[in-house]
Amino acid sequence: MRRHTLVTALIAAALLGYAHATVLFYNAGPIDATGGGAGQSLGTGLSRSVGATDTMYISFEIEPRSFYNSQTAANTYTALQMYAGNSEGFAVGKSWAPTNYGTFGGEVSDTSINIVEDAKLQIPRRLVYKIQYNGTSKATVTIWKDPIPYLSESAQPTSKTTSLNNVSCWFNDLRVRAGDSTTTYRYSDIIIATTFDEAASRGPMTLPESSVKWTYSATNIYSIPSVANGLIYGVSSDNFVNRVRAISATTGLEVWYSAASLDTSVFGRPVIKQTSLGTRVYVVSDRGTLYAMDAADGANLAASNPAFIQTNNPQDAGNACRTSPLVVDTMNGVWVYFVAMDASTSDAPVWYLFKVKDTGTALTYTIGDCLSLMPFKSMKYVSGSPSIGPDGTTVQIPVNHSAGATMLSVNTATMTAISATDVPYSVDTPTTFSRDGSRFYVGDDGGYVRAFWTSNGNPDTGFGGGAGSVKLPKNALIPGCGLALDYWSSPNIIYTATADGYLYALRADTGAHARTWSSTAPQPFDYAQVYGTPLLLKKTSSDVDGMLLVPTLDWLFAIDTGHGDDSRYAVRYPVGPPFNQYFRGVSATGRGSGDSVIVKTGSGSTFQIRCLALP
Questions:
Q1: Rounded to an integer, what distance in angstroms lies between the CA atom of residue 149 and that of residue 153?
Q2: Hey, which of 41, 82, 213, 251 has its CA 20 to 30 A from 51?
């Protein structure tokens, strides 16, 4: 969805960054077409009459805007249409049928393109058509819907291509039209060019709805689903009944749901862990209650609220925990660590790191098996889940307070702090460890990526030229955007993105740019605000490049890390409507780029889990 200002006149190619004379006209838009009538002239200054012998490509993005949250567009038409004087001519857009993109006007009236799909709202489509004037009164037209931007004209899939013969394409005006006064369609990136590449090589490509393998609908799914052993785990909240649900990753059908209702909603991602007790599912509710159950069928459900046991205070307030638990399987049993607030102290929050034992049938908590987090500072919140180092005994937690954040290292045997390193900005995501475990990394809300030594919590002065940090040049925050590490590369690579859509790749040992494109801060996300931690998928550990999944407020982007500066190699899928506050992450059925991707979409009280097949 492009957010440029309206350009109403013919603009010189050089001013728009086009170095080639092949671009005859460009209008970034957006232009909203509504109201019926003859439409709005683009003022291209171009015309073609009988006897023309050249070839012209016309390209634009069209997005239905009228019926917010509706599943289909209205029974009306909209198009970019040719006019000869006041006479209507050939047009390409959305035809009368609610679900069709098509062509109409002239001798091909109401001919639907044979590559039609649902014109669902807030899913823009790029339409490109080629007009071959042959010196007669007719022309040949070839049309592509959502062409793959980095492929040549001849390499485009036949499923995206259709051809029309004997079409009248004479014009002295091009207009954007809508069929009535009740619907609105948005047009942007309108290009007229003499080559296919200039007209169609506009990324990222929007995935068609045929990429959705299945859809599962439920009420109030707040947490990001997790995937393990062929099942997808999530928590839904329907009329105050909160259940863990397991869905088949193959079919999208529900396999089981927890017999008992949880005490309130769950915002942290479920954790599925294979332990000596079997494979178990762990979630923490918004009241700070820990739940565990068997992953295969939801049996052996156990629950414990250690904050209540510790303080004997009623845990009625929400916002006690919005993170995920950490599960560690040791010789002494299966232990679960999580951060929660004593909800009875909401005026002056007291936060704890709790340690709970899972016996397989019960969750047992011993009073005192906790650590009060930074009691000597003015606490604000903890939004980064705890993570554990390679030694299996040191837990890292970012703790936010009035002066910024403290990177806290905790000895799990004694539940005491080993080190506490302050940073001047909040940290909203978990720490990430290097492959050998010697360092851990965080991104903070000041736009810094920081590296620390695991052994003592001190900044790694070899990172960032002695500073122990790298300031991302665009001075943007990273709210809720964590770090994705490529553990298989040598050296390891840190991928992250700033809130305004710039992508970075840093060497994990020095903080230097790890990709030739990262120094230029590419912005492949179409000015979308990044709103979650990227996920890196690679077919094999020996692959140099992979696919980086980046969630934003409006979209899920999939970016080829080998072409991070070229949005033609990116695809996107809408998670809208805009500002979907509960879309902050993504899951995948495997680590290969051919595996399916699981996203959560929706707003209000209606959510869907969708399984996507990426190209």
A1: 9
A2: 41
**Which residue in 201, 200, 186, 206 sits closest to 57, CA to CA?**
200
**Cβ-contact 233, 225 below 8 angstroms:** yes
The tokens for 14 are: 């050089």
* pLDDT tens readout for residues 428-487: 888 999 888 899 999 988 889 999 999 889 999 999 988 999 998 765 666 567 899 998
What digits encode the pLDDT tens for the residues 193-207?
999 988 987 778 788
**How many other C-beta atoms can be found within 10 angstroms of the C-beta atom of residue 142?**
18
pTM for the model stands at 0.80
Can you tell me the distance from the alpha carbon of 598 to that of 615, in angstroms, rounded to the nearest whole number?
Answer: 14
Strand, coil or helix: 558: strand
Residue 10 pLDDT more than 60?
no
Report the 3 state secondary structure along 370-425.
EEECCCCCCEEECCCCCEECCCCCEEEEEEEECCEEEEEEEECCCCEEEEEEEECC
pLDDT score recorded for residue 107: 56
Strand order in the sheet with 606-613: 212-219, 606-613, 596-603, 587-588
94 contacts 156 by C-beta, under 8 angstroms: no
- Assess contact for 119 and 99: CB atoms under 8 A: yes
- How many other C-beta atoms can be found within 10 angstroms of the C-beta atom of residue 251? 12
Residues 485, 470: Cα–Cα separation, whole Å? 16
- Single-letter code of the amino acid located at 206: T
Q: What is the pLDDT of residues 94-146, one digit of tens each?
A: 877 666 777 877 655 445 555 445 455 557 788 999 999 999 888 999 999 88
Q: What is the rounded CA–CA span in Å between residue 272 and residue 281? A: 5
> What letter does residue 562 receive in the DSSP assignment?
G
Query: DSSP states of 455-517 as a string?
Result: TT--B-TTTTTTTSEEE-TT----TT---EEETTSSS-EEEEE-TTS-EEEEETTT--B-STT
| Separation between Cα atoms, residue 179 and residue 261, nearest integer Å | 50
Spell out the domain ranges in the chain. 13-202
What is the fold, at CATH topology level, of the domain defined by 13-202?
Jelly Rolls (2.60.120)
Number of neighbours of residue 125 by Cβ within 10 angstroms: 19
Q: Give per-residue pLDDT as tens, 30-56.
A: 898 888 788 899 999 999 998 899 999
Q: Which residue's structure tokens are 């990227």?
A: 534
Task: Supply the DSSP string of 239-256, one letter for each residue.
Answer: TTEEEEEEEETTT--EEE
